[in-house]
Amino acid sequence: PAQASRLSGIDDAASHLLQVVDDILDLTKIEAGRTVLEDVPFSLDALLQRSFSLAAPKARTRGLELVIARQPAPDALRGDPTRLSQAIVNLLGNAVKFTTAGHVTLHCRVLETAAGRVQLRFEVEDSGVGIESDKQTLLFEAFNQADSSTSRRFGGTGLGLAITRRLAGLMGGDVGLTSEFGRGSRFWFSAWLGVQAQGLVPSLRPALAAHAVLLVVPTPATSAALELALRAFGMPCRAAATLEDAERLIALQRPGVMVIDSALTRLPTMADVTSLRLRWPGLPMVVLQDDLGPWHFADAPAATAALAKPVTATALAAALEAVLDVAQRQAATAAPAATTAQALRALHAGARILLAEDNPVNAEVSMALLSRAGLVVDAVSTGALAVERVRNASYDLVLMDMQMPEMDGLQATRAIRALAQGQSLPIVAMTANAFGEDRAACLAAGMNDFLSKPVETARLYAMLQQWLPQRARDTSPG
Q: Rounded to two decimals, what is the model's pTM?
């Protein structure tokens, strides 16, 4: 423990020194006029997500809520994403450093538009210690800090804000702040950026607009930001701060989809999410998590998605579209899928399936679906193990992934076909490689058919019923 503590101190000191050197180099390059901004395409939402990922670890250790509040703005932009992200990260880092409880929120809005260009304003608001008015005027100068005491409670170099001011100037913008001592701060900078042609598409999403959302989030800042995004998609939205409020609103009018913060119930596992789904059966659900680590997707109920906070508009739209699509397909295929499962069990119960899949989550889901249809499943994680199993045991069908370590699915299929017992064995590809050339490669390697992931239950059962050999019915008692 003593050695670990010393090494941790050395690591922290080295990181701090590296940051000082990087900041000084950045500042001198800018002041010498040697900083040239890039002009490349990038996604605004993706840039915000990356920027927050750098501030998230320290924020989580302090129990801070991170929020992205983006008003309708183009997502497909042109400019220098590295320098833009650097300016945002500087403001986020300061906000997290000076905030011990509450939230840190990034506001993004359009100030002005011109031919093919847009001026955006990024504001980082925190609920931290705030800054005395007499110290605010010099904060954007190099080596000036709000905490200049000898105790150096907060640390830092005093260069982050100076670099942000100069980067904003290079991007045709400005900087500023508003703060009240003891009541938090709001630092901002603006920048002119180019707009890609597809960036002019409005935020309204016709596929989502018909679905009402129930937003169940306890934190006002997060709730307000998500409501802003949902209304930009054209989705009617009602908000609740507790599960009890949600229950009351659902009783009045059932929503089309629910967005719920796991902080309400401190949900650590998917089993707890399943209990929520049992509480409101059939309701598509997007669950917000501080960290996606505890989720076990193999146990996930259908029409449920997980999102890590802070949530970008793009990620929220994708999750909503995914769960609503699953819910619609479930409603359309529920009866046929059940009938197919029953037919599969009646005709092929006890058939032995070899599943070659290196992803443990995919393997667990597939084994659950196959077992539900009365099939006996063995799973292996490499192509070499699949060949070995076929050599030493008898199987009725093989489900083969394409991409696996040691030996991929194509090589494994060729090796199985070279075995006497593998020449007539049905082999079905089950892979995320869904292009036409992938299908052709599978068939050329000797596979019988092709299923693309994510696999729909009804299609899987139909494929098995097509390729499993007919079995004599077991008429013995029991």
A: 0.58
